[in-house]
Design the sequence.
């Protein structure tokens, strides 16, 4: 309709009417662009908010996983130190027996490092890093990612070292079928105390648990730094 009116005005040389119609056309185009831009901006803001929420959920889980891992490692370290004390003294007090046995059955296990954030991996692979405008948040995310990558190599090396001592460590006891503990039934403390290879294995496995603890602690700190930035973004 507007274009028809503009055409008629030009044909009849009604310049005032043509000018009015032209202004209306331009205004409609400008308004259309503004509406599109507003819609795109709103969609971008909604996508960014949803991304921040997903990252927050990821890193809450990562921090919780790290806390569980550190608690498990701390218990394993305490149990291995109980074994070392018993070997040094040549005596296993009854009140230390549970910790001693926990060290036998769990001292050589480990918790894998926490994983990457699946949301951040998706953002990075899709090239939508511009969604994350907060430079402090980006730095924290990249620092955490670097820690995850380094942890994989470090844990692999630690596991290879640990494997060297497994035979000496497990020689004096056996694990029941299904891994169920049977306190006091499947190890010989006197044989352990007389076996220098077993004592050396206990030392090395304790050192490995120290490595695991150091790396899980560092990873948790970096994950918490990300979580702090995300909570600031969310206004929590």
Sequence:
């Amino acid at each position: 309709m507007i274009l028809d009116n503009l055409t008629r005005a030009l044909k009849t040389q009604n310049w005032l009417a043509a000018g009015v119609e032209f202004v209306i056309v331009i205004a409609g185009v400008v308004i259309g662009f503004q509406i599109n831009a507003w819609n795109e901006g709103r969609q971008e803001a909604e996508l960014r908010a949803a991304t921040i929420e997903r990252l927050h959920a990821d890193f809450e889980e990562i921090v919780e996983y790290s806390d569980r891992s550190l608690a498990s490692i701390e218990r394993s370290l305490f149990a291995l130190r109980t074994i070392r004390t018993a070997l040094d003294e040549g005596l296993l007090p009854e009140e230390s027996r549970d910790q001693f046995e926990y060290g036998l059955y769990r001292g050589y296990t480990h918790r894998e490092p926490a994983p990457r954030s699946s949301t951040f991996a998706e953002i990075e692979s899709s090239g939508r890093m511009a969604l994350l405008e907060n430079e402090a948040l980006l730095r924290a995310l990249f620092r955490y990612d670097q820690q995850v990558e380094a942890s994989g190599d470090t844990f692999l090396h630690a596991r290879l070292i640990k494997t060297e001592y497994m035979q000496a460590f497990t020689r004096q006891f056996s694990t029941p079928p299904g891994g169920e503990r049977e306190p006091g039934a499947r190890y010989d403390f006197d044989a352990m105390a007389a076996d220098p290879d077993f004592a050396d294995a206990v030392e090395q496995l304790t050192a490995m648990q120290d490595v695991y603890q150091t790396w899980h602690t560092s990873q948790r700190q970096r994950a918490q730094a990300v979580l702090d930035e995300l909570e600031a973004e969310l206004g929590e």
